[in-house]
Design goal:
With 459 residues, the chain is α/β, with parallel strands linked by helices. The chain contains 14 helices and 17 strands. The termini are far apart.
């Protein structure tokens, strides 16, 4: 074994690997060298004395899981939480678009640091972002959130979003926040050129993400798909979130949302859709056949009254499914572990107590999310050779005392404190606190950005 590289030995934890064999150890040791897992096994079979110079972490009373993967977010919305709290999706959007039209790079950076910091303390190690609002003169918004992700230390998959169908042309967003197709495609290609890292241990990858069928034209969807495939990056958009969207597609295109996207070459294993609440049986079959993935956002769906996604049917059909917190303006907590909890509760509310198990939900939050992003060969499970993105949850608290099954404690109980989390082998959370950014400073910056943005909207 190569003696070089920093070593961390995590001993005597209950380890839930989320590997293909669903292996678990009640008393296990996991060894990290730099950013890779180099040993996993029963504590009696892994000789920790072989690594005398390692950093040793006592996992007694803890459960070690893969890091949680957030497959859908809008980070900029962190500074517009609590607004339009009792609105439908379309009402919510039309209320907030004029506010979002005032965002700038400083505000987006503060919002992203706040949202990503909270994600980290809820067990997230990889997050996407779908940023589609680019007001004229706002500055380099994608760079602002990329800088924030680097500061917090999360693995990051932002997408260069877009809107080109303004209200004057029958779309939902105000004309002030839409762009021309040529400008969108130029900016999209530039984002991939500047930031996309295709390497196996990449901390940063870029996708392309026109916003939704009711805010972009079919020409933009077709051109974005062609560009993404030419550049070798993934595609993302919202789809089948509400019954209003289903009616919009029926009236405008004479078909369902998924049929519309299929016409435009938007199905495939390089595509993931956010929400997917209102899919028919045929749509689920088509998703499974093509390997098209879904970011399930149960809390946001409930907050906006969008409905309950057919998670059990999607999973049973073999559709790749991960979890997402969605934007902070429709999920004010944006805590990743809560999505695993809500996924179980929502599935069982409509499908009965066996609709989704606790381990199935944890799988959606880990290896499921990694699969949605095309990275399940690299992270999402605890296996030798995979990236060291891990979370050590402390189950010794009063809230979890007496729950024998650690996965039930994790998914059904209150969120446990995080004793340690690692992203790419680096500690990001220790003893419940983010180690990379100062929470008090970020909170003050968020409050300032929030007040500044609302003041602009009131002018």
């Amino acid at each position: 074994m190569d003696p070089s590289g920093a070593l961390t030995v995590i001993s005597h934890a209950h380890v839930v690997t989320m590997d293909a064999a669903d292996r678990e150890w009640a008393d296990a040791t996991v060894v990290l060298r730099d950013n890779r897992i180099v040993a996993v096994g029963d504590a009696r079979e892994v000789d920790t004395a072989a690594w005398p110079d390692a950093v040793h972490v006592d996992g007694r009373g803890c459960v070690l899981t893969p890091g949680l993967v957030n497959t859908h977010h809008h980070l900029y919305q962190w500074i517009t939480r609590g607004l339009a709290a009792d609105h439908t999706l379309f009402e919510w959007l039309t209320t907030l678009y004029p506010v979002w039209a005032g965002i700038d790079a400083a505000g987006v950076n503060a919002a992203a640091r706040g949202a990503l910091g909270v994600l980290a303390t809820s067990g997230c190690t990889t997050s996407t972002d779908h940023h589609y609002v680019f007001p004229v003169g706002a500055g380099d918004l994608l760079a602002a959130e990329i800088e924030a992700a680097a500061a917090v230390g999360l693995r990051f998959h932002p997408t260069r979003g877009s809107m080109d169908l303004g209200r004057s042309d029958g779309g939902l967003p105000p004309d002030a926040v839409v762009e021309s197709i040529d400008d969108i495609l130029t900016a999209s290609a530039d984002a991939v050129s500047r930031w996309h890292d295709p390497s196996p241990d990449a901390m940063l990858r870029i996708g392309l993400a026109p916003c939704s069928p009711f805010s972009v034209t079919s020409d933009l969807l077709v051109a974005s798909a062609a560009l993404a495939r030419d550049l070798g990056v993934r595609l993302h958009t919202h789809l089948a979130e509400t019954e209003d969207e289903t009616a919009f597609c029926a009236e405008r295109f004479g078909c369902t949302p998924l049929q519309y996207m299929e016409r435009l070459d938007w199905l495939g294993d390089d595509v993931w859709f956010a929400h997917g609440v209102h899919f028919t049986d045929d749509a689920i079959t088509d998703l499974a056949r093509t390997g098209t993935a879904i970011a399930h956002c149960p809390t946001s769906n409930a907050r906006l009254g969008a409905g309950v996604a057919r998670t059990r049917d999607l999973v049973a059909a073999g559709v790749p499914v991960g979890l997402g917190v969605d934007g902070a303006a429709s999920n004010e907590s944006c805590r990743m572990l809560e999505e695993a909890h809500m996924a179980v509760m929502m599935a069982r509310a409509v499908g009965g107590p066996t609709a989704l198990t606790t381990r199935q939900s944890l799988r959606l939050a880990t290896t499921g999310g990694a699969r949605v992003l095309g990275r399940d060969a690299e992270f999402g499970s605890i296996e030798v050779g995979k990236l060291a993105d891990l979370v050590l949850w402390d189950l010794t608290t009063l809230a979890h005392s007496g729950i024998d099954d650690p996965v039930a404690a994790l998914v059904l109980g209150a969120q446990p404190p995080i004793r340690r989390s690692w992203v790419d082998g680096r500690v990001v959370v220790a003893d419940g606190h983010c180690t990379t950014v100062d929470a008090g400073t970020v909170a003050r910056d968020v409050a300032v950005a929030h007040r500044h943005l609302l003041a602009k909207a009131d002018r």
